Input
Amino acid sequence: MTAGGIDRADPEAAIAEAARKYSNWGRWGEDDVRGTVNLIDGAARVRAAALVRRGAAFSLSMRFQNDGPQKGWRRRVNPVHTMTDTGTEAALGTQGFPHGFGGADDVIFMPLQCATQWDGLGHIFDHGRAWNGRDAARVVTSEGDRVTGIEHLAAPVTGRGVLLDVGRAVGEDGELPDGFAVTEEHLAATADAHGVTVGRGDIVCVRTGQLARVRRGEGWGDYAGGPAPGLSFTTAGWLHRTEIAAIATDTWGFEVRPNEFDGAFQPLHQVVIPHLGLLVGEMWDLDELAADCAADGVYEFLLTAAPLPVTGAVGAPVNPIALK
Output
């Protein structure tokens, strides 16, 4: 047993129990395709818009570039950016346009979850069941996610954002070490230290400081899939009880790695995506926003975080914008 009461040897039982206790299946009807994003309503967006006082804007996205975090695991590679027309062709006059007109064009190839992104509701299954109890085999096929594709979230993911800078509040020198399990107690203590509440419909951003280590010059290393600070499996109850709409972290996998069970792989994902219907964001760059929040003492803001609406996708890139 760990200090949090986790039986490291029995992930199956812990996952099954959490799934039973925290399931949102049927909560928004049998045809639901938005999960916890349903908790952001129009009134919540109006209240969130009132949080903009200074007009300061922060992009929470890392750069989509070839020099990125991915190492090829499960065919996840970094973006491949290719120019199809350049200034060279324009200057040489080989583009075929009249009266000196010239231009540049480019294309990009990339996995949809190679950098800052949302996990869609069709991304993770539990024993062959997808969000809302659906048969995973009928939800996601070779044609994509035919039911809960990420395109359904193209408009509604705008609301009150809350930063929980656990790295600064709990860690040393503003960062948590790899393998640090962020518990409900850590989240509550951080919110209290920031003077902010977390509740229904919020989009919560949890900064661990791991991305800051990469930026400081340590390099990507095992950032993609290796040891990392992250949420403890025991936070499943907090994620359900607070009724947040979404959560995002500055790490590759959202939950602590190595995972808290022997031989397990991402057990918190297995509960919160198919059972809670929770929208999960990963690899968000929260450092600039965190510095501003620390400076002005305000940890809430308007957050717009629409995924790229790729029809049938089970995840998508996003450039979240926090406005204060």
The chain has two domains: 11-74+111-323, 79-109.
